[in-house]
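FAQ
Q: What does a multi-component entry look like?
A: The components come first, one per line:
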Amino acid sequence: MKNRAWWFLIPSLAVMSLSAFIPLMTVINYAQYTVFPGSAPYFVGMENFVKVFQDPVFLGSLRRQVLFSLEILLIEIPLGLGIALALPKKGKWVGWSLVLLGVPLLIPWNVVGIIWRVFTRSDLGAVPEIFEWLGYASYNASANPGDAWWTVVTMDVWHWTPLVVLLCYAGIQAIPEEFYRAAKIDGASAWSRFRYVTLPKLKHALILAVLLRFMDSFKIYAEPFQLTGGGPGNATTFLSIYTSRKAIGGFNMGMGAAISIVYFFLVILLSWLLYTIMLNVGGGSSK
Amino acid sequence: MGIEVSNLTKNYGSEVVLDDLDLQVPDNSFTSIVAPTGAGKTTLLRVMAGVEGPTDGKVYYDNEDVTDLSVKKRNISMVYQQFINYPSLTLYENIASPLRVSDQDISEDEIESRVHDVAELLNIKDLLDHLPEEASGGEKQRTAIARALIKNPRFTFLDEPLANLDYKLREELRGQFQVIFKEEQSTFIYATPAPEDALSMSTHIAFLHDKDILQFGEREEVYYHPNYVEVGSYLNEPPMNILSSELMKEGNNHYFQVSEDLTIKAFNSEKLETGKEYLLGVRPQEVEIGELEGCVTFDTVVSFNEIVGSTTTLHSEHKGQEIIIFVPEPKRRPEGEKLTVSIDPQMLYVFDKRTSELVTQGTKTTLGEKK
Amino acid sequence: MSKIELNNITHVYQSGGEETVAVRDVSLTLEEGTSNALIGPSGCGKTTLLNIISGLLTPTEGEVLIDGEDVTELPPQDRDIAQVFQFPVVYDSMDVFGNLAYPLKNRGVTKGEIEDRVHETADLLGLEDRLHENPGGFGPEWSQLVSLGRGIIRHDTTALLFDEPMTDVDPGRKLTLRRRISQAQRRLEVTSLYVTHDQHEALTFAEKAAVMNHGEIVQYGAPENLYNDPVSTFVGNFIGSPGMNFIDCTIENGELKFGNYDISLPEDLRDKLDPGWSSLELGIRPNNVELDRERSAEKQIPAKVILTEHLGSYQIVTLEVEGIETAIKAERSLENRTTEGSEMFIGLDPENIRLFHDGDAIENGTK
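Then the predicted structure of the entire assembly, as tokens:
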């Protein structure tokens, strides 16, 4: 049967090839050259790739990135799930709670960074004041690496936990009430009901939440760039910031291209690992 | 004339649902495609209607090859299991919708008169201004059928339309269907897993089994002359009793040995081979309780009672083989009770155990005079 | 294995200012260890009643007693009832063994005892070969057995409630499930209530069935009772496939008149009739309508066959009789089957006739 639907894909395919496919080919090409603006690119083969893995700044950024994503997942997933469980399932407050929760998701990412920068400024911000009042007088996000790190983490939690909440909430709503009734009849405690009804049934929602948050946090750029610029020093220099510094700041696009490719493969590899592990944990159907 | 399907194969990925299937649906017939759930009836219907294309093979309408013709161009309609109606339109508008989207220019007056006619036929004339959500299941399904009939399609396909209805409604509609379909000038193709649906409404029955049509013919023919044990057993409600036996010979006499306590004198022994295993089919309604003259009598033990309204389907066991008896009243017998039953050997169908084919049947299996 | 009593239960739903009476003054007693069914058309209130018994709903009025104790306000888990729902409810992160053991684990039963009971229950339900499989991949007819298993494994279950459990089950597999449910109930003698709109399921399972309509229980009795002595035209029609025939009639001089015909009634029945009654209906089951090609003393009424339905083991014949508005249905065995257009003669044996006035049965002495 000839399906005319295929014709409808042409515009999308055209846009995708222009914005994704062709640039991707270009990047792979550049990665094998040393490219400086103003002079002719010269072929270096795999040399860029080797240099990347020997660069201590790269390795440091990679380490920081992995740590960051891990912390994000460990905080946001349980927190998001917890909030979703606490939200009302029906009634007039449902609409309001969901809207209020969704607000942080709507703010443009660089604006999020700016908001947090203003709030945490040592001279005008509210956050340092609060810390002082709590007894921690030396809070300084622009000077103190520890403070900078945790401020970036907190900002991300504020920004993105609502996404986890919404995904889990939708998953919870989809669980038929009969399962809880049956569990209660079976004499299950609240924890047991959570462990054997809620959690298994949320498996796919959670996989989705973990994958989305992992991939996004691993590529995080705008918010920390606005908040700390990657500093103090390299304290909050994540892979994306490192890459752009090398490629744009350092004018070596060949190197930048190589880093991008490594980055790309890292994201894919780690995502795939996560997905496979999560799918097989806890048994149950992989439907 | 009618629909012809030849060498039809349909695969979904690596799964073969229909394999080299041939079927000819006669013009103006009401043909039921009977098979248990999951056998591929819906797939066959969809391919015949043109909703899906076959992987291989051809479909002909009135001798014209329509295999590649899109559904929209064929003059057919389809009724589904789930009562599909446009939720935002009134029942009137739902029924009128095929006329409104048709290529022909039909006047509003004509639409009105045709909608009223078909609504009257299906007994929903008073509900035309309701929305589907205000109508009951039976009413929604009747609306869907009205919508299918209104454009006088050449072929109407029905995919288990009664499956999701209360049993009482199913009863009612089954009776009404017969009347409705006789009045309409369409050829009907009806998929169902329920033998009573097929037997009560059809002119022709096609039995789908193992990816192919095992038997096709006029209703009476298929019912009284099942060519395979699968057909005979399925097309009875409750299913035919199938007893495993071996043909033995003593002197000049041949008999079927079902168990050490049950032997039945064989007939038409020239068609049978001694030592071979045969499946004996006997309809539950032909098993009589008590001792009867001229019949083979044996004992069984009651195992389960199924009360079906005015009748009881009595399950019993004889030396490991199940015997189902049709009792024409709702009566429960205690489990474990010993029962003496009789079967007239001329009521038996004899099937070859290895090939499932019908070898011979008793003289009383086909009915002579209708009274 | 407890006795369940419902006393004067009424339940009213409020929705946006409108009141719907779902259950109207229902009183019912389910004796210990008996199997019961609750049948009725969609919307009759049976699901509401079931939820009141299970504890999901507290009735607007009335009380629910289990073994004499008032449990009306107690939630399901405190009533020790077990319920099988419309769709299979299984824990898909555990295997069958884990599922069956769950209710016992939660109650602190010892490991050894759990092992014994799980095997016992699995044996009863035919699950012993599948104990270490995960029910998440089972077909609904097996998952329902696991659900049932969890309900019966506890020895303190007061009652077993079924809420249209065959809804998701394939027609071809319903028989096996029905059998196992019946066998389990009979072996364990658990007080049970099976709610459904399908009389086949209900009457196969239950020793006694309650027929419900518009929120009221119209009749509660053994299947044979409901069949032979329906207390109203509703029951007469609802029970039996097809339902009872109803013909309008009047009384004249102690004789029943319908259309152009009359039937003499037995003495004791005649005494119960009031000649002033106008809306009288004669009820007779299709399989009690005598039919023959030839006229005889018993079969005098000429009729014409207008529809035949071949149902696999018998035939339903719809007949038109001159002077009678409603068509009459009769059953014929296949060897006596007939065709449309045939002229036949009908006989109605007074023994099989039930009379109804205004929809309610008039008791006859012939019982």
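Q: Is there any commentary attached?
A: Sometimes. For this entry: Strands of chain A lie at 33-34, 42-43.
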